[in-house]
Every structure is written in C-alpha cells, then in structure tokens.
Design a protein that fits this description.
The chain is an alpha+beta fold. Helices cover 30% and strands 22% of the residues. It has helices spanning 2-14, 18-34, 39-46, 50-63, 91-100, 127-139, 212-215, 231-237, 255-261, and strands at residues 68-71, 76-79, 142-149, 153-166, 171-177, 182-187, 191-197, 217-224, 246-251, 279-281. It has a five-stranded antiparallel β-sheet. The chain has a three-stranded antiparallel β-sheet with strand order 9-8-10. It has a two-stranded antiparallel sheet with strand order 1-2. Residues 129-195 form the WYL domain. Pfam families: BrxR_CTD, WHD_BrxR, WYL. It comes from Azohydromonas lata.
Length: 311
C-alpha cells in the first residue's frame, strides 16, 4: 500500500507546474511547523481567490490523504498523527522563513512568522555596490572600482568577480585582481562605485576554472575537543555521526574563514583552551596549501612562517 501511495504522489507531482508546486510546499510547511492551515493562509500568501486555494488544499489531500484533517470546531486543517512531510524542508531555509517571513511582501513588509530574534548584521553592503557586482558575476564581466584595503589604502582596481561569499561576519567577493594578476577576496563594504566594463574582454586565466584555491575541495575531520567538559553535548550540537567524526568539505579559498567562524581548534596538539573550542581539527595537515589556513585558530604551517594579513 505504501509503495502504491508513493507512486501516486510521484505521478501527481510530476504533472504539477512550478507555481502550484510552491503552493503545495507552503501548505506542507504550515501543517508541519505550525500545526494548522487555513484557506486564508494560502489566499493571503499567494494573492489568489478562495476557490483556487480550496483546489490546492484538495490536491494536497489527494496526494497525502493521511496528512491533514479538518477540525470542524475551528474550521482549520490540522496534521494527523500519521503526518509525514510531502516535501524535504532544508533547515536553513526553514529557520530563515520562520524568522524573516516566507517571502511575503518586500522590504519592511517582511515579518517573522514566529517570535524570534536574529543578531543585527553590522557589515551589510550598499545595494548600489552589490547590484553591479552581481551583474558582473552573472554576465561574466569585469568591473572597475575604488577599493580601500588595510595595506594599501584607497586604490583604483579592475577585477573580475567570480562568486559571492558569506563568512559569517561579512560578505566578500572572490575575484581575479588584474593589478596583482592573482585571485583574491574583496570585501563589499570597502568597494566604491563599481562599474561594469562592457567592452573589456575576460581572459581564460581570469575565470573561476583557473582559480586553484576556489576549485580545490578540502576534506576536514572534526571531533569533540579532547578538553571539552561535555563531549556528548558537542556531539548533539553538531550532529556528529556514531563513529565520532564530523566530516566537512570546504573550498580551500574559504577554509580559514570557516574554521575561524566555528572557532575550531586547529592546533596539532589541541592546545587551545576555552569552552568556545567545541571542535578540534583531527588532522591540521589537511589545511596545507590553503592560502588562508593561518586564519584558523591555532593552526601552524609546518613549512612556512608567512603571516596572513589583516582581514
């Protein structure tokens, strides 16, 4: 019976267009995370008529008949004890939706779906900077801009932006720097008046395929810090598998940032102390060759004394 139901679901969903699929996912979301669904929820979210919302709910019930039941007292659909989500809901997207809204409205109209609190972002870029940079990434173009670095102060640059990166405390752009002829990270808040260079040809060696640090994937293995007083809590916090090792893949270009953000002890002898060091990098040599490895707490390059410059 379960096999037949799964086949029925797959057949129905295969014939559903993208817009209706989004509405079905929203119905699933409301039932799963709020324990109730009103027809008005679908009407308000998608700006549709009551009859159309009723059809969507009926389709959802046809696909998963045991997922919801109508509570006649409140005229509300509620999940049954047999409820199983029809869609896979990614944790990060769910938390963002709950804290900032499920795409309802724009700008200040976005409101959290539950009482929640998110730390203020202190280093957000100007949209007048972000927009041309994103256009350049999307279209494979170079840009000219003013840039202020800690080492050089203000300079005029030409860069070929490749990707947008969030390191937790700021956003930066991975780009090819034509001035230094190498791939570097450029902080968005330090950019001034970027202009897309429509007539400037991007050469092959300026593309992401030639960025070795970006293309190289490093496999890291984390274990609860040997000095942590409650390793069982660490295993719970990071969903560490039964074998006791959390395995994470990361681009070499982003490894140091990630390890600093997570406060991972990367010393060879797990010598860093403090409750904030919940994880230890079991094999620090896995970072060898990553240009920003020395940003990682406690990391010691066995073959270099080069210092990473200020962030």
């Amino acid at each position: 019976m379960a096999v037949a139901l799964d086949q029925h679901r797959a057949a129905v969903l295969a014939g559903v267009n993208k817009t209706q699929l989004e509405r079905l996912a929203y119905i699933d979301f409301k039932l799963y995370f709020f324990g109730e669904l009103r027809r008005a929820d679908v009407v308000d979210r998608f700006g549709m008529g009551p009859a159309a919302a009723t059809r969507d709910i009926a389709m959802y019930k046809d696909i998963s008949p045991k997922n919801l039941a109508l509570d006649n007292t409140d005229k509300v659909y509620r999940p049954t004890v047999e409820f199983a989500p029809l869609f896979e809901h990614a944790p990060q997207r769910v938390l963002t939706a709950l804290a900032q809204g499920f795409g309802e409205g724009f700008s200040d109209a976005l409101k959290p779906m539950i009482r929640s609190e998110i730390p203020n972002a202190l280093g957000l870029p100007k949209m007048s900077v972000l927009a041309p940079v994103m256009r350049a990434i999307h279209r494979g173009k170079a840009i000219r801009l003013g840039y202020t670095s800690i080492d050089s102060g203000y300079t005029e640059r030409e860069i070929v932006p490749l990707a947008l990166v969030d390191i937790g405390i700021r956003w930066h752009v991975r780009a090819f720097d034509r001035r230094h002829r190498q791939f570097r990270d450029f902080v968005l808040t330090r950019m001034d008046a970027p202009t897309v260079l429509e007539d400037s040809q991007v050469m092959q060696d300026e593309t992401a395929e030639h960025d070795v640090q970006w293309s190289r994937i490093i496999e890291l293995e984390f274990v609860p810090h040997p000095e942590h007083p409650r390793p069982e809590v660490v295993r719970m916090d990071y969903s560490i598998p039964a074998d006791g090792v959390l395995r994470v893949s990361v681009r070499a270009a982003n490894a140091g940032y990630m390890l600093r953000r997570w406060t991972v002890d990367c010393s060879p002898d797990h010598s860093l102390r403090g409750i904030e060091y919940a994880l230890w990098l079991r094999d620090p040599l896995a970072l060898y060759g990553a240009n920003n490895a020395q940003l990682a707490p406690g990391y010691k390059d066995p073959h270099s004394k080069r210092k990473i410059k200020a962030l």
